[in-house]
């Protein structure tokens, strides 16, 4: 195959959809250059993404399967290093992955998610009460004043973090999705969080609860040799980030989509479509996890006619896949809640498919329906073009979504 000139990925994530159109024009899998000058592949076509995610020859374990890293050719200043070297179930491969995933899945089973419904409703109601207490005419950022506290509290409930420890939970993980911070900042952030998490796990061991952390500790005690403290902490660290930022994005993106398209909002508020239709269309058109590093072929592979060599970094472009015109037609970029097929891969596919699907859907369904019921006059608080994208090409969200909850009396 002829060598393509790589598309340089914009690390600020200014316009990921426009960038994806350029990538798509190069075929279902395109050569890209990542920040730091790193060559890689971006899988953009829906079918190619589906095949790549189902292909056991694509590993997520950088230490074992990234040729350039093994050869010492990746410097410590490579801006996405912390994504490659995370050490948790999302980067584990083969039997290691299966073992960690089994344990985490146990924490999501047995009706735990459905059992969280009353507490999610309580958190949503409390946050909306706080917003309702603001003066008419006040403009608030729905992301920081509603979405963020909601998703953080829910993940804290899931893993059993007591109220007094939640601020510390907020500090770790989140800033690392920003692709403009330095590797030192990212590392310092993780280090601070790890110390706090070690204290948390020890406290939980002394005082168990009905939560996912207690399940992980119980699994460790049942079979100590197979689950280390570090693995528990890495898993919690990952859950904390994976369980919050994408969910917050889904909520913020959907509010923004409805407030900028009154016809679509009308359809759901008059019951012509369901909140699930709206959420699905949002996942398709605005995948909250946009462009995820990394996978590495363990052998030379060919997917949808594109040959990738063993050990080359591959990114999965969920945002592009959801808007693939081959599947969704020429208007794939249009947000349309009445669309027949809203098929998307926003939660992934195959063995690494998101474990939090049910929880994320539940949270966002409760949050959106309650928000629009409580504030029927909800409007965008600034012109739509002033709503800036999150500084990331990995995640797809807005920095802030300012809204006017109720018009002022005058
Ligand atoms: C709208 C919200 C969410 C979206 C769009 C989302 C998206 C994703 C995606 C695309 C993956 C697959 C990554 C891959 O292919 O390698 C993934 C994996 C994962 N997600 Fe989510 N996620 C969301 C919410 C959550 C929540 C609420 C949790 C937990 C509280 C969670 C926990 C995880 C975990 C643990 C994995 C790793 C699974 C594995 O590697 O086996 N996610 N998520």
Short description:
With 410 residues, this protein is α+β, with helices and mostly antiparallel strands. The protein has helices spanning 16-24, 46-54, 62-65, 67-70, 81-84, 94-108, 112-115, 117-132, 142-159, 166-171, 183-206, 212-222, 229-242, 245-260, 262-269, 275-285, 318-322, 325-328, 357-374; strands at residues 7-8, 29-34, 38-43, 58-59, 139-141, 292-297, 301-303, 306-308, 314-316, 379-380, 402-404.
Tell me what the structure shows.
The chain has 410 residues and is an alpha+beta fold. It has a single domain (7-404), classed as Cytochrome P450 (Cytochrome p450, Orthogonal Bundle), CATH 1.10.630. It contains 19 helices and eleven strands. Strand 7 and strand 8 (306-308) form a beta hairpin. Helix 9 packs antiparallel against helix 14 (245-260). It is globular and about 65 Å long. The termini are far apart. The relative contact order is 0.19. Protoporphyrin IX containing FE is lined by residues 53, 89-90, 101, 104, 155, 158, 238-239, 242-243, 246-247, 250, 288-289, 292, 316, 318, 346-348, 352, 354-356, 359-360. GO terms for molecular function: heme binding; iron ion binding; monooxygenase activity; oxidoreductase activity, acting on paired donors, with incorporation or reduction of molecular oxygen. This is Cytochrome P450. It comes from Catellatospora methionotrophica. InterPro entries: Cyt_P450, Cyt_P450_B, Cyt_P450_CS, Cyt_P450_sf.
